[in-house]
Protein backbone atom coordinates (compact mmCIF):
# COMPACT_ATOMS: atom_id res chain seq x y z
CA UNK A 1 0.00 0.00 0.00
CA UNK A 2 1.05 3.59 -0.51
CA UNK A 3 1.52 6.21 2.21
CA UNK A 4 -1.97 7.70 1.93
CA UNK A 5 -4.08 7.74 5.09
CA UNK A 6 -7.34 5.93 4.30
CA UNK A 7 -10.64 6.32 6.14
CA UNK A 8 -11.24 2.68 5.32
CA UNK A 9 -10.77 -0.04 2.73
CA UNK A 10 -13.34 -1.60 0.40
CA UNK A 11 -12.99 -5.00 -1.31
CA UNK A 12 -14.73 -5.22 -4.68
CA UNK A 13 -15.72 -8.47 -6.40
CA UNK A 14 -14.86 -7.67 -10.01
CA UNK A 15 -13.71 -9.70 -12.98
CA UNK A 16 -12.39 -6.72 -14.95
CA UNK A 17 -11.58 -3.90 -12.52
CA UNK A 18 -14.39 -1.82 -14.02
CA UNK A 19 -17.65 -3.19 -12.66
CA UNK A 20 -18.87 -4.90 -9.49
CA UNK A 21 -20.00 -8.07 -11.22
CA UNK A 22 -19.05 -11.12 -9.18
CA UNK A 23 -20.99 -13.26 -6.74
CA UNK A 24 -19.04 -13.31 -3.47
CA UNK A 25 -18.80 -17.09 -3.30
CA UNK A 26 -17.62 -17.49 -6.89
CA UNK A 27 -15.15 -14.61 -7.04
CA UNK A 28 -11.50 -15.53 -7.49
CA UNK A 29 -10.18 -12.01 -7.15
CA UNK A 30 -11.12 -8.83 -5.32
CA UNK A 31 -9.92 -5.31 -6.03
CA UNK A 32 -8.93 -3.48 -2.85
CA UNK A 33 -9.87 0.19 -2.81
CA UNK A 34 -8.89 2.80 -0.26
CA UNK A 35 -11.16 5.74 0.44
CA UNK A 36 -9.32 8.82 1.65
CA UNK A 37 -10.62 11.64 3.87
CA UNK A 38 -12.03 13.45 0.84
CA UNK A 39 -13.77 10.30 -0.44
CA UNK A 40 -11.33 9.94 -3.29
CA UNK A 41 -10.95 6.40 -4.62
CA UNK A 42 -7.51 4.79 -4.67
CA UNK A 43 -6.99 1.40 -6.29
CA UNK A 44 -4.53 -0.37 -4.04
CA UNK A 45 -4.13 -4.02 -5.01
CA UNK A 46 -5.81 -7.21 -6.10
CA UNK A 47 -6.30 -10.07 -3.66
CA UNK A 48 -6.76 -13.58 -4.99
CA UNK A 49 -8.94 -16.05 -3.10
CA UNK A 50 -10.12 -19.61 -3.48
CA UNK A 51 -13.86 -19.41 -4.29
CA UNK A 52 -15.93 -20.52 -1.30
CA UNK A 53 -18.91 -21.69 -3.36
CA UNK A 54 -18.64 -24.88 -5.36
CA UNK A 55 -21.80 -26.05 -7.07
CA UNK A 56 -24.07 -24.33 -4.56
CA UNK A 57 -22.26 -25.74 -1.51
CA UNK A 58 -20.14 -23.57 0.76
CA UNK A 59 -16.96 -24.65 2.45
CA UNK A 60 -17.06 -23.06 5.92
CA UNK A 61 -13.27 -23.20 6.32
CA UNK A 62 -12.73 -21.40 3.00
CA UNK A 63 -15.38 -18.86 3.99
CA UNK A 64 -13.64 -18.08 7.30
CA UNK A 65 -10.24 -17.92 5.58
CA UNK A 66 -11.61 -15.48 2.98
CA UNK A 67 -13.28 -13.36 5.65
CA UNK A 68 -9.98 -13.12 7.55
CA UNK A 69 -8.24 -11.97 4.34
CA UNK A 70 -10.55 -8.96 4.28
CA UNK A 71 -10.63 -8.20 8.00
CA UNK A 72 -8.94 -4.85 7.21
CA UNK A 73 -11.92 -3.82 5.03
CA UNK A 74 -15.04 -2.05 6.20
CA UNK A 75 -17.12 -3.12 3.18
CA UNK A 76 -17.19 -5.78 0.48
CA UNK A 77 -19.08 -4.85 -2.69
CA UNK A 78 -20.53 -7.75 -4.67
CA UNK A 79 -23.21 -8.44 -7.25
CA UNK A 80 -24.74 -11.16 -5.02
CA UNK A 81 -24.04 -12.83 -1.67
CA UNK A 82 -25.78 -15.55 0.27
CA UNK A 83 -27.03 -15.09 3.82
CA UNK A 84 -24.48 -17.47 5.35
CA UNK A 85 -21.54 -15.72 3.72
CA UNK A 86 -22.93 -12.30 4.65
CA UNK A 87 -23.31 -13.41 8.27
CA UNK A 88 -19.72 -14.69 8.39
CA UNK A 89 -18.36 -11.41 6.98
CA UNK A 90 -20.41 -9.42 9.47
CA UNK A 91 -18.93 -11.49 12.32
CA UNK A 92 -15.52 -10.19 11.16
CA UNK A 93 -16.77 -6.58 11.16
CA UNK A 94 -17.17 -6.40 7.37
CA UNK A 95 -20.39 -5.11 5.83
CA UNK A 96 -21.29 -6.86 2.56
CA UNK A 97 -23.22 -4.75 0.06
CA UNK A 98 -24.92 -5.95 -3.12
CA UNK A 99 -24.15 -3.00 -5.40
CA UNK A 100 -23.58 -4.27 -8.95
CA UNK A 101 -22.51 -1.72 -11.56
CA UNK A 102 -19.58 0.53 -12.39
CA UNK A 103 -17.23 0.48 -9.39
CA UNK A 104 -17.10 4.27 -8.93
CA UNK A 105 -20.92 4.53 -9.15
CA UNK A 106 -21.35 1.69 -6.65
CA UNK A 107 -19.00 3.44 -4.23
CA UNK A 108 -21.00 6.67 -4.63
CA UNK A 109 -24.14 4.71 -3.66
CA UNK A 110 -22.25 3.35 -0.65
CA UNK A 111 -21.34 6.90 0.40
CA UNK A 112 -25.00 7.96 0.11
CA UNK A 113 -25.92 4.98 2.29
CA UNK A 114 -23.36 6.06 4.90
CA UNK A 115 -24.63 9.61 4.82
CA UNK A 116 -28.20 8.43 5.38
CA UNK A 117 -27.08 6.16 8.23
CA UNK A 118 -25.41 9.09 9.95
CA UNK A 119 -28.77 10.89 10.12
CA UNK A 120 -30.18 8.26 12.50
Describe the protein's architecture and organization.
The protein is α/β, with parallel strands linked by helices. The chain has 3 helices and 9 strands, in the order ββββββαβαββα. It has one domain: Dinitrogenase iron-molybdenum cofactor biosynthesis domain (Nucleotidyltransferase, domain 5), CATH 3.30.420. The chain has helices at residues 60-69, 83-91, 103-118; strands at 6-13, 19-20, 29-36, 41-48, 53-54, 57-58, 73-78, 95-98, 101-102. The strands form 3 sheets. The chain has a 5-stranded mixed beta sheet, sandwiched between helices. A two-stranded antiparallel sheet has the order 2-9. Strand 3 and strand 4 (41-48) form a beta hairpin. The radius of gyration is 14 Å and the shape is globular.
Structural features:
single chain, 120 residues, alpha/beta, Nucleotidyltransferase, domain 5, 5-stranded mixed sheet, two-stranded antiparallel sheet, 3 helices, 9 strands
Provide the number of structural domains.
1
Strand pairing plus helix content: what structural class?
Answer: alpha/beta
Mean pLDDT: 92
Rough outline: globular
Say what oligomer this is: single chain
> How many runs of DSSP E, i.e. beta strands?
9
CATH H-level homologous superfamily name: Dinitrogenase iron-molybdenum cofactor biosynthesis domain
Query: Which CATH architecture would you pick?
Result: 2-Layer Sandwich
Low-pLDDT residue intervals, each spanning 5 or more residues = none
Order of strands in the sheet with most strands? 4-3-1-7-8
- CATH class placement: Alpha Beta
Give the percentage of residues in beta strands: 35-45%
Secondary-structure element pattern, one letter each? EEEEEEHEHEEH
> What's the total helix number?
3
CATH domain fold name: Nucleotidyltransferase, domain 5
Binned, the helix content reads: 25-40%
Radius of gyration: 14 Å
Report the span from N to C terminus: 34 Å
Largest sheet: 5 strands, mixed
Amino acid sequence: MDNIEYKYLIAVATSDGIVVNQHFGRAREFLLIGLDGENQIHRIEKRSVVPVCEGGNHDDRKLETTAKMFADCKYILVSRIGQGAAYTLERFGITPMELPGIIEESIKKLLVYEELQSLF
